[in-house]
Amino acid sequence: MILKSIIMGVALTLAAALIGAYALVLSGLIPANADAKPGRLETWMARTSLDATLRRDAPKDPNPVALTDQNLINGVHLFAQNCAVCHGSEKGIASLSPIAKGLYQKPPQFATDGVEDDPEGVSFWKIKHGIRLTGMPSFRYSLSDRQIWTLALFLKHMDKLSPAVQQTWQQVQNWPVTSVNQVVRK
Length: 186
Fold this sequence. Notes:
The protein has a domain at about 55-185: Cytochrome Bc1 Complex, Chain D, domain 2 (Orthogonal Bundle). The protein contains ten helices and no strands. It has helices at about 1-25, 40-55, 70-80, 85, 100, 110-115, 120-130, 145-155, 165-170, 180-185. Helix 7 (about 120-130) crosses helix 8 (about 145-155). The chain is elongated.
């Protein structure tokens, strides 16, 4: 009889918590706007889930794209076309685009914040699948796996580029949106 009462108490407590959470969501008291800072619980849940997903799903194999200047230049071009508007140019935090300023979570400005310490498989996974509840989209339907690996290669090595690749990187503009090819032709 005591066990039945305990189980019933736990079940009622869980039901009350779920109803309370549902009512809280329906009340609009949990901000849904992009310019509101998320609460600690939301931030913890999102980071914990992302970290666990990356540990489980990010490729562990080495990048199949060879480390060459041409592949790094290709990575710069892909970055300029697909990423710079949010993640910035070689100027980093000093030149946020209007889109990057309005996003929450604030997208890291890679020239300033860097991602060179991330394993390439982690960058590949983030680019391919995106990150839920942020502005990071999935590129799985618009870029091939080879292009995504090429981007991951550039991100891994963006702090130690040869002069030729560095010159291409310096030409990237994050706003207005232009590709490196358009900048080079001017």
